[in-house]
# Entry
Amino acid sequence: MSVDPKARLERLAGKIVDFRLRPPTGPYRTFFTPNVVGHVNRLLGHPVPRSYSISTETGPGSEDRALAALLREMDSVGVRLGVMNGRHSVNRPVPVHIEDKELAELTQRTDNRVLGLAGIDFDKPMTEILAGLDTAVKELGLVGVCIEPGLARTPMYADDEKLFPLYERVTELKVPLLFMSGPLAGPDISHTDPVRFDRVARRYSTMPVVLGHGCYPYVKEAIALAFKSEVTGLLNVYVSPDVYVFAPGGSGYVEGINWLPKRFVFASAYSFMGVEDAVRDTLALPLNEDALDDYMYRNAEALLRSAQGGAAQ
# Structure
């Protein structure tokens, strides 16, 4: 299949939505260390994003300069919006907490170019978690929720009954739920088995479920889950493979996007890959044009409309 990446870039300019973009600021910088970011980018055949490198510089103003560089990078390849997620990673030598208020502040600092998904701190009682979701969506203006049950102090699977009240509240709030899946989603890769997410998506059939990192390495199984969502008419599962499109076996996602274009969502997973590199490499993939448009922005816009009760920003 012959494609013209340059023509595609011109056509998509100012439309693209990056559904997993972690700005190089504050706690994100603590979580995504230079060693980790450098190693992942090398595995993907790219240099560390310039905006991330700026954030590691000493001296005043480096964070502001890094944010400005990130926005320029987004502009250079037509990315209109980014979506960032809160997280509470406690099973680390130095725990990292990316709070909802920090996300709201980053949205303001980027002139609404990067929107936030509320994180879940499983060290808190469920009543406090649910109240926090109300605050995040109704008061702070966050556009969804991100959940990482396999990274809790006591790891859980996505279909653990203890999580059902949380899913019920997300359903009531009418916002999308982004799961962290993939090989790093828990102490072992059973935490990314699509059957867990299948059970949640069927039980809460009106809740949009986005599978960040595409359940890699379960590529075929993730596509099967998307197919099931499509043919049953539930239409609530979205696979977001991000950098794993370019990993061994990731070509299966490309086939899946062409086959089920309404069930996939583009993301760079910045800073694991630069926004510019992710867009340019994606536009070179053998995707048909209509499927490409769905993947790069239409499906994400539909998810954001569900959260905002109207047109996406």
The chain has a mean pLDDT of 95. The chain is about 45% helix and 10% strand. The chain has one domain: 5-308. The two ends are 34 Å apart (CA to CA).
